Amino acid sequence: MALGDLALEREVLSMFAAQASRLVEAIAGAHANANAKEVSAIAHTLKGSAHAIGAFGVADQAAAFETAFQRGEEPGVALGRLREAVAAAHAAIEAILKNPP
Question: Which CATH topology does 6-98 take?
């Protein structure tokens, strides 16, 4: 991910943790406002970002949310699972960042 640059890796992880939380809240807000195009775009962005850093649980749940939403299913359960995956990734990232390189 960071080609062996531990400081860069830590910075990227920190940025992802903050971004993921913001994106989940943006998804919830866009869904509440019935903005389908925005919901799909944000979920897709989160899925790509998660894949890029190896947060595969987040990527999988973002994909599941995106699919549920596109099928017209009530995405409440999928959104809950996405929130849980982001919280787990956030906890894992915090554990990594607490340990000095």
Answer: Four Helix Bundle (Hemerythrin (Met), subunit A) (1.20.120)
